[in-house]
Amino acid sequence: MNKIVEKYKLSESVFKFIVEAPMIAKSRKPGNFVILRIGDRGERIPLTIVDSDTEKGTITLIVQNVGVSSSKFCQLEAGELITDLVGPLGKATHIYKAGTILALGGGVGIAPLYPIVEAFKKAGNRVITVLAARNKELLILENEMRQWSDEVIVMTDDGSSGRKGLVTEGAEEVIKREKVDECVAIGPAIMMKFCAQLTKKYEVPTQVSLNTIMVDGTGMCGACRVTVNGETKFTCIDGPEFNAHQVDFDEMLQRLRAYKSEEDQARNKK
Amino acid sequence: MTDHTEMLKQERNTPWRVELRNSVPGKDRIAIERVKMNEVEPLERIKSQTCEVNCGLTPEQALHEARRCMDCVNPTCIEGCPVSINIPKFVKQIEAGKFLDAAATLKEFSALPAVCGRVCPQEKQCELKCFYSEKMNKEPVAIGYLERFAADYERLSGKIQIPKVEERNGIKVAAIGSGPSSLSFAGDMIKLGYEVTVFEALHEIGGVLKYGIPEFRLPNSVVDVELENLKEMGVNFEKNFVVGRTASFDDLKELGYKAFFIGSGAGLPNFMNIPGENLNGVMSSNEYLTRVNLMYANQSDSDTPIMLGKRVAVVGGGNTAMDAVRTSKRLGAERSLIVYRRSREEMPARLEEVKHAEEEGIEFMNLANPVEYMPNAEGRVAKARFQRMKLGEPDASGRRKPVAIEGDIFDIDVDLVIVAIGVSPNPLIPACLPGLKISRWGTIEVNEETMQSSIPEIFAGGDIVRGGATVILAMGDGRKAAASMHRYLQEKQKK
Ligand SMILES: Cc1cc2nc3c(=O)[nH]c(=O)nc-3n(C[C@H](O)[C@H](O)[C@H](O)COP(=O)(O)OP(=O)(O)OC[C@H]3O[C@@H](n4cnc5c(N)ncnc54)[C@H](O)[C@@H]3O)c2cc1C
Ligand SMILES: Cc1cc2nc3c(=O)[nH]c(=O)nc-3n(C[C@H](O)[C@H](O)[C@H](O)COP(=O)(O)OP(=O)(O)OC[C@H]3O[C@@H](n4cnc5c(N)ncnc54)[C@H](O)[C@@H]3O)c2cc1C
Ligand code: FES
Fold first, then answer.
1. Is residue B57 part of a domain?
2. Beta-carbon contacts of residue A174 (< 8 Å; ≥ 6 apart)
3. Does position A103 have pLDDT exceeding 60, yes or no?
4. Which of B123, B157, B191 is the endpoint of a domain?
5. Which of A183, A239, B59, B357 suits A1 as a labelling partner, its CA being 20 to 30 A distant?
6. Is it the case that residue B434 has pLDDT exceeding 90?
7. Domain co-membership, B248 together with B295
8. Against a cut of 0.90, is the pTM above it?
9. In this predicted model, what pLDDT tens digit does every residue of B388-430 receive, in sequence order?
């Protein structure tokens, strides 16, 4: 059982939680995630560790309410307990001095991107960040990102904040303008697919962090499998980050829909 | 070895045993028919995932069965038991009506008799070596049923004896994983006075006993009683804790842990790498069984979804395949099919599971192997393509090797495929212990006598050492490791 220490509303459907987890706070690295469960019959859902405070022994999680399990979490308040929380899981991001980093974040994917941006900046890179959301209201962590980025470009579908357009448009502009040594893209699978297509065209090495369906998160079930470079990989132990140009996104998109009808039913029931 | 034989002989010559032996003439014993296990009717039991198929023996049945045992001069059954349980002793205690004593005898050798009585492949172990099987060509004494009877009798009597534990010696040791190997290790170490913590990555304690083996074979309540006993004896359980991640071995050493037992199992499911294997509706048996057994996904109050199938094909011939296919039947499949590349004789599953599966209407398609899965318009598996096989020469394991019959290929309509073709060791721990010696299969190498690894303070056992094996072997490893870790720590203290 882990206690929620603080809760903030970042947008109508996105919440930030500061959670007591001293061991995880100490051992986590950028790119790691946790799996948590709310309630006795709760589902195990993966969430990225956005930040940690080793002194206070807390970690930061940011979650978007998209279905039954995420909504159960979003309903919890400061002082309440998370039934089960385990981590840090997954491989850490390979952080090094590359030169110029282009960081692309879409929707709630901005949350997992945040610790990576911070780490690349601290490693001495020039970091250009492109944040994209459907509208201003759904845009999260803009100020935090500015703290660790040399430049932040905001794109919204409706132009209510920053510029009107997709994340790929902002990205292409940067790539055309200056030499980018490495790109990191995190967001909905479809966004990552198009980012990968773009950077492949310009031959910019690109990492993506995949948000596949998971159960245990320890390599035991294979629910999280993806095809990378023609080989089956388990996202929870071989990833979550992979070379974007080798990921079979169409298969991943298909697999994300595996439980669509069950999820829709569950949402309507509850 | 001779010491052991001598001890068995002395036990056999205790007056009560001699008297009991002589009370019924051997030929009368031989004339008795083996008991039949009481079972819930197939049509009834497939309505529920939790209804245990075997009901156990009544005391009358147990007395009757125990009487069949000849109390042989040379009890070969013991040779068949991986942990050398003194089988004639506990069977004769049952015949004498001393059921609690029989349970106590079992516990001298096995930490989890109620579990082993239910899941051990007795037909390949003790019962294979029984005098009746070896010499008489008759059905063996039902040692497994009797083991279960004695253990259940004790549990249900409310007179469970919590073993005596030595005074705490303040030395901290850790078990990693909470499967049968770690549980038996923990039980022995706590008795010796150590401070024992069991770390488990999942949110439930029990390893495969909880997430793998379904309740219709091994009810959770049976496992929970054992866990409660361990807690009462003072074992500390930490769940949601991945050793190597949540904390490293060095972190744990800093916290005062002096030695470690790794019982992290062989958790990683194997796939065949054939076209269509990543389609929706194709999954590992681990995923399917975990969703049901650990996450209760088949129950309406669970948040975890499950894919139901009307036409389910399960690939494999082991216990895991049987558990998955029988689960699918219980979750409402119209057709549940085992696809196995060898023949019935080579099936590694327990005989009883195969028999139960057949009774429940599971179809067996032996000598066939999938080569491809094909989707419907929504991208879910709709057809499986199989290659017909025949048996060739025996391979390294002594089983005849399946070879493809050229051109003999056929399709079957399916909407769920469960792949149960084995597991590989979890690489997580080896990856974070660079000095640890690993075999080419990824298992941890240990000294077979002491279960000690290449790092002196690290011991290991169960599936992480053996690859996919059995509960009883895992349990035996845990006990061996406890004994040698105790010696190791004592010697270290003297220095
Ligand atoms: C490594 C990783 C890191 C992630 N980090 C974050 C994060 O920081 N913030 C955040 O808001 N979300 C994150 N996600 C996604 C998050 O786990 C899912 O949104 C959540 O599980 C949805 O559950 P639900 O019941 O609310 O929604 P559902 O109604 O069940 O499903 C909504 C969508 O979520 C996906 N999903 C469903 N169940 C799971 C599951 N068990 N595991 C993963 N995806 C699932 C489905 O494909 C579906 O498209 C991450 C996922 C992964 C794999
Ligand atoms: C479906 C199924 C049916 C079976 N049926 C039978 C049967 O009928 N009879 C029989 O004898 N055998 C059977 N087996 C095999 C038997 O269950 C195993 O051989 C036995 O459970 C192995 O025990 P173990 O102690 O090695 O660990 P496991 O039971 O495999 O448990 C290992 C545990 O360690 C945890 N773990 C792993 N890594 C870490 C870490 N780094 N930190 C913390 N925890 C960790 C895992 O989460 C897991 O819970 C079956 C197996 C399966 C899957
Ligand atoms: S989530 Fe089960 S193997 Fe990755």
1. yes
2. A102, A128, A130, A153, A180
3. yes
4. B157
5. A239
6. no
7. no
8. yes
9. 999 998 888 788 889 999 999 999 999 999 999 999 998 888 8
The number of folded domains in chain B is: 3
Cis status of the peptide bond prior to A88, with omega within 30 of 0:
yes
In terms of CA atoms, which chain A residue is nearest residue B380?
A: A258
CA of A45 to the centre of ligand 1 (A): 6
Same structural domain for residues B316 and B418?
yes
Q: Does B271 touch chain A (CB under 8 A)?
A: yes
DSSP secondary structure letter of residue B135: I
Assigned domain for B391 exists = yes
**What is the CATH number for B204?**
3.50.50.60
Ligand nearest to the CA of A212: 1
pLDDT at position B470:
92
Residue ending a domain, choose from B401, B422, B443: B422
B416 and B282 in one domain? yes
Output the CA torsion sign for A114, A116, A120, A126. negative
Radius of gyration in angstroms for the set of CA atoms belonging to chain B, rounded to a whole number? 24
- Residue B49 lies in domain: 5-157
The answer for residues whose C-beta is within 8 angstroms of residue B135's C-beta and 6 or more apart is none
- C-alpha to C-alpha distance for B126 and B106, rounded to whole angstroms: 14
Rounded to an integer, the average pLDDT of A162-185 is 94
> Of A189, A156, A153, which Cα lies nearest the Cα of A174?
A153
The answer to whether A237 contacts chain B (CB < 8 Å) is yes
Return the residue in B242, B243, B277 with the most chain A beta carbons within 10 A, the one to mutate for interface testing. Answer: B242
| Helix (H) / strand (E) containing B487 | helix B471-494
In ligand 1, the atom with minimum distance to the C-alpha of A264 is: 29
A60 lines ligand 1 (CB under 6 A): no
User: Do the Cβ atoms of B408 and B389 come closer than 8 Å?
Assistant: no
B182 touches B261 (CB < 8 A): yes
Q: Cβ B246–A216 below 8 Å, yes or no? A: no
Pocket lining: A67 vs ligand 1, CB cutoff 6 Å: yes
Angle at A52 between CA A50 and CA A53, to 5 degrees: 155
Q: Does B483 map to a domain?
A: yes
Q: Extract the tokens encoding B162.
A: 């919590």
Q: How far is the CA of A44 from the centre of ligand 3 (A)?
A: 11
Bridge partners, A15 (sequence order): A9, A63
Q: Is A219 in the pocket of ligand 3 (CB under 6 A)?
A: yes
The first and second tokens of residue A86, run together, are 């385990």
- The per-residue pLDDT for range A14-51, each reduced to its tens digit, is 999 999 999 999 999 999 999 999 999 999 999 999 99
Question: Which structure tokens are listed for A167?
Answer: 């994340």
Paired strand residues for B339: B315, B365
B299 to chain A: which residues are within 8 Å by CB? Answer: 41
Say if strands B311-315 and B416-419 run parallel, antiparallel, or are unpaired.
parallel
Whichever domain contains B146, its CATH number is 1.10.1060.10
Instruction: Please list every residue in chain B whose beta carbon sits closer than 8 Å to the beta carbon of residue A25.
Output: none
Q: Predicted confidence band at B2 (pLDDT cuts at 50, 70, 90)?
A: low
3-state secondary structure B431-459: HHCCCCCECCCCCECCCCCCCECCCCCEE
- For residue B162, is it within any domain? no
φ, ψ (nearest 5 deg) of residue B267:
-85, -15
| pLDDT score recorded for residue B395 | 82
B49 touching chain A per CB within 8 A: no
Interface pTM, i.e. ipTM: 0.93
**Cα A217 to ligand 3 centre (Å):** 4
Rounded Cα gap, residues A22 and A18, in angstroms: 12
Please, are residues B216 and B53 in contact by the beta-carbon 8 Å criterion?
yes
CA-wise closest residue to B49 among B242, B237, B329: B329
Q: Does A254 touch chain B (CB under 8 A)?
A: yes
pLDDT of A270: 54
The mean per-residue pLDDT over the stretch A81-104 comes to 95
Count of beta carbons in the 10 Å neighbourhood of residue A25: 21
pLDDT at A106: 94
Is a pLDDT exceeding 90 seen at residue A12?
A: no
